[in-house]
Amino acid sequence: MIVRNLPEANQSDRRIVSPDGNWESTRLLLKEDQMGFSFHITTIYDGADFQMHYQNHLESVYCISGEGEVETLADGKKYPIKPGTVYILDKHDKHVLRAFKEMTMACVFNPPLNGKEVHNAEGAYELDAEAITP
Ligand code: 9YT
Q1: pTM for the whole thing?
Q2: Which end of the chain is more exposed for a tag (fewer CB within 10 A), N or C?
């Protein structure tokens, strides 16, 4: 069994701060754990408004706290996000995420992240990103 603790992980290189200033994510479970998915606790900063397109991954995002919206760009639909909302990018949907109040999200990625991923110019993660050092 694997047991980890968020406050401890936040003090380690599992905590990734996005250079775009929109979010940070502490990656509690990664590819090296061989579970077939990764699991992260992500903070979307107040006022963030940014586009993503996970061409190489599927992602589920569950809102623990905060308030915002997600917009799917293919059809312009906007979905409010509040605690208890989950959105599931089952079609590699290009989307915009907006935080009206800082949001804490639990995120699951398939395939699992290596550890050091940040968004590329298209808002995707590369499959060959660097792993964190154990
Ligand atoms: C919700 C979302 O996709 N935020 C960007 C960060 C990502 N969830 C991650 O790397 O944990």
Answers
A1: 0.96
A2: N
